[in-house]
Amino acid sequence: MTATPSVERSGTTVSDSDPFLVVEDLSVEFPTPDGPVRAVNGVSYTLELGKTLGIVGESGSGKSVSSMAVLGLHDPKRSTVAGSIRVGGQEIVGMAEPGMRKLRGNQVAMIFQDALAALHPFYRVGAQLAEAYLVHHPKASKRDARRRAIEMLDRVGIPQPDGRVDDFPHQFSGGMRQRAMIAMGLINDPSLLIADEPTTALDVTVQAQILDLLQDLQREFNSAVVIITHDLGVIAEMADDVLVMYAGRAVEYGATKQMLTRPAMPYTWGLLSSVPDVQADTDARLIPIPGNPPSLLDPPPGCSFNPRCAHRDKVPGDLCRTTLPELLPLAAGSKHLKRCHLADPEAVYQSEVLPEIAPDLVEEA
Amino acid sequence: MSDETTSPDDLFHEMAEQGHTAAKLDPRAKPVLTVEDLRMYFPVKAPGLVRRTVGHVQAVDGISFQVPEGGSLGLVGESGCGKSTTGRLITRLYKPTSGSMQFGGRDLATLSKRELKPVRRDVQMIFQDPYTSLNPRHTVGSIVGAPLAVHDIVPKNQIMPRVKELLEVVGLNPEHYNRYPNEFSGGQRQRIGIARALTLNPRLLVADEPVSALDVSIQAQVINLLQDLQKEFDIAFLFIAHDLAVVRHFCPEIAVMYLGKIVEIADRETLYATPHHPYTQALLSAVPDVKQAAVGGRRERIMLQGDVPSPVNPPSGCRFRTRCHLAQDICAKVEPPLLQIGPRHKVACHFAGELGKAPERPVTTGLLGVDDRGNPDASSTEPVDVELMTGSGYEDRWFDVGSRTVVSG
């Protein structure tokens, strides 16, 4: 763990050049009776204000754990967080709880997947929203807080907010609860919003509404957004940059458009080929990734994806099984990073993968 | 997985060969299941000692469709639209309020419990949640073998060999028959559920959201497995899902439900390329699309306002009218029939038309004998062609929405 920097500093200074969120070499380890589980291993990324980062991966790939570290939600007694996370220039790793509390919900807020579980069933929605406001505005009166709650409910599109503010969470529908969660997350105008699978439990029409709302609000408040999901469609619509995680490591990182048209890592290809597309050619094949994600207690040697990789035979020798590839730029100076031994992934993708998963796109490419 | 050890030249192509393309439609297939005017009303009881019935949840309200032999019909819709209830009615986990379900020359809707038992061999179900649908205190062997014992098909000492055979069919290690469900991952558990459903060689499988609880990479494995099994054993599927992309891949024919009714039913190409119902159009426009966004720009969305109305007290006339941007007076007064408008296309809308080309005047007035505002029209002399608006199959003539005449193919 790194030493705690000046926690008491309340106002943060962000120089124009420095990105708002900087995560460097983040590792999170949990001790278990069977040995330590390294859920996140050496993940780095940066995020500027007004931009969206999408984190994709299967369950257990470390995407939620890494974002919870940004909010300092890991109990130091039960986990070891190493590396560096800077939010607006302020170091989070190792920060003491009182300082963290000032930050949490104020500068950094989180939207959880299951809104019914994240809202308290005994308290009225308005009271929960007002509490989030009062914690960070101790001088505000209750009436101010209530007014602010109504204002936020209205802003996220809940009809008759001055009436619904006194409802309990169970009286809201699924989409409205998610909206209330977003309202709670945004009530203190945070600069960084982490949305952990914000639409997974929702129907497509409601999902579309929520995604549109998130984008509107982001534009309005110029906040940085981290969106965690397993749905590449959501990524395609929302994110500027994408980070693909597998077994606790970043395996590919780059601009969304680049990543979705020219993915360079077999795991990303696998993700793309294992979800059917609503507009796809019906001759497109659905090619699953064989096997299951590895156990983090005993990760495979070399590249952690190698037991499931369909392209490991294209790498000479048993490099994939013995050596962990570095996260390197695709070409010199490129911002598109990949962790793979394949010498020319682009050629493999265009000539072999694309004809099977999207025959209609081959000619254009 | 055992295929990890194979290291021939082209691992990827070998794998790709095993992946399936989207299922194809066989238009001549005979229906294995014909559902007509099926209704399920659940009573709503008043609180207190005297539990009077104060209303009904109209979960499924008059739906008709056919599932072709060896084919699959997809059922999509938002949560609460009655798609799961439909699946449970077909497996007779509920007794329908009214309507008929013809299967193998019998009406499933009216069979008694005793008469149902032999039919249950032919109609099986795959459940959504592989964590709650397997008994944690039974071994996989006893879970998969239970149907054989219940139906007394093979002698007790031959149950285990059959169970092992089934586990192999669904891609599990047959040696694992004495393990408990908690020792398996989500995808493997779903395979156990599928093996259990296959035990009795069913002709119809009702798959209720079979992949939505699984991780993306595992979803594709299970979909491919279901497609393999369908080809091998010639099983018909009623595939219930909310994921429009998965349904499109698995089912050549798809029905869209809204608040207990089918609003549009068509073959895959028609439904996804030229949907005629505003609800279908809105649903399709809401699906995030990887390819679209990758090439830049975003599709124009049709935003649906508000929430789905309560099925206890559904809107009069067309049930979608409260959220529909095309709604006019007629929609509140007259319920649109599920009208055949193409060789394999039915839609229930007064203003049926392609996206952005909805007609100004209702297309159904002549057929229903009403005027543009939905009032009865005495001057209408056209005979009402009932057959186009009822029945579960397709007629060889249909109502063309462009010319507003009945044409035949």
TrEMBL record, chain A:
The keyword ATP-binding applies. One of its GO terms (biological process) is peptide transport. InterPro entries: AAA+_ATPase (IPR003593), ABC_Ni/Peptide_Import (IPR050388), ABC_transporter-like_ATP-bd (IPR003439), ABC_transporter-like_CS (IPR017871), Oligopep_ABC_C (IPR013563), P-loop_NTPase (IPR027417). One of its GO terms (molecular function) is ATP binding. It is a peripheral membrane protein. Keywords: ATP-binding, Cell membrane, Membrane, Nucleotide-binding, Transport. SMART domains: AAA. The keyword Aminoacyl-tRNA synthetase does not apply. One of its GO terms (cellular component) is plasma membrane. It comes from the Bacteria. Pfam families: ABC_tran, oligo_HPY. Its main location: membrane. It is found in: Cell membrane. Belongs to the ABC transporter superfamily. PANTHER family: DIPEPTIDE TRANSPORT ATP-BINDING PROTEIN DPPD, OLIGOPEPTIDE TRANSPORT ATP-BINDING PROTEIN APPD. This is Peptide/nickel transport system ATP-binding protein. It comes from Nocardioides lianchengensis. The lineage of its organism: Bacteria, Bacillati, Actinomycetota, Actinomycetes, Propionibacteriales.
TrEMBL record, chain B:
GO terms for molecular function: ATP binding; ATP hydrolysis activity. It holds the Pfam family oligo_HPY. Gene3D superfamilies: P-loop containing nucleotide triphosphate hydrolases (3.40.50.300). One of its GO terms (biological process) is transmembrane transport. Keywords: ATP-binding, Nucleotide-binding, Transport. Belongs to the ABC transporter superfamily. It comes from Nocardioides lianchengensis. This is Peptide/nickel transport system ATP-binding protein/oligopeptide transport system ATP-binding protein. PROSITE patterns: ABC_TRANSPORTER_1 (PS00211), ABC_TRANSPORTER_2 (PS50893).
